[in-house]
Amino acid sequence: MKRRHYRRPNSCLICLVAATLLAPGWLSLAAEPSPNKLTEEDKAGGWKLLFDGTTGRGWHAYKRQTFPTNEWLIEGGWFHCLGKTTGRLGDDLVTDAEFDNFELEWDWKQLPSGNSGVKYFVSEKTNNPLGHEYQMIDDDRNPDAKAAQGKRVTASLYDVLKLDRPAPTKPPGETNHSKIVVKGNQA
């Protein structure tokens, strides 16, 4: 993840989704090339760093208390999903802190045919990490992007809302930048 992240902690968890049937390393979320840091201005503005670029501090596997080192690797300032246990609890990374109103910015990339997402308003009181999902997918190669009349393409609210126009994304392996802003009941 990059630069600015969340402010005003309170009520929801953020979850990095490991989707099914994908090659290892399909999702990467990054910090700057050097460890991620907030400026004094960022700190004064209430920003909270979620990923330091070197450790899993602040993250755990869904329904577990520890960072899932068998499922995720941190290397070169990026989170990498290893794809070892895809489809089971533990694939999804969840923030330790909870948030209500927030802004999240992150960089991401994935391999051809990749499929992932960032979920928010997730609760570990349920059996599955359900929540609103910002979809991140290879729109050209992954068949799931063709399903649901445009409600499963990159930047859509997965399976709920389609975009007015396609999101400008870079090819697999290149870095994309995304942002979610939640204010009250609006995202």
Distance between the first and last residues' Cα? 19 Å
Instruction: Summarize the amount of helix as a percent range.
Output: under 10%
Helix tally? Answer: 1
* Major sheet attributes: 5 strands, antiparallel
- Spatial arrangement of strands, main beta sheet: 3-6-1-8-9
Low confidence ranges: 1-11, 18-35
The number of E-state strands comes to 10
Q: What's the overall average pLDDT, rounded?
A: 77
Shape: globular
Which structural class do the helices and strands define? Answer: mainly beta
The SSE string, one letter per element, is EEHEEEEEEEE
Strand residue percentage: 25-35%
Gyration radius (Cα, Å) is 15 Å
Describe it:
- This protein is mainly beta.
- 3% of the residues lie in helices and 30% in strands.
- The chain contains 1 helix and 10 strands.
- The strands form 2 sheets. Strands 3-6-1-8-9 form a 5-stranded antiparallel sheet, with no helix packed on it.
- A hairpin with a 2-residue loop joins strand 4 (72-75) and strand 5.
- The longest helix is centred in the N-terminal third of the chain and has 5 residues, at 40-44.
- The relative contact order is 0.22.
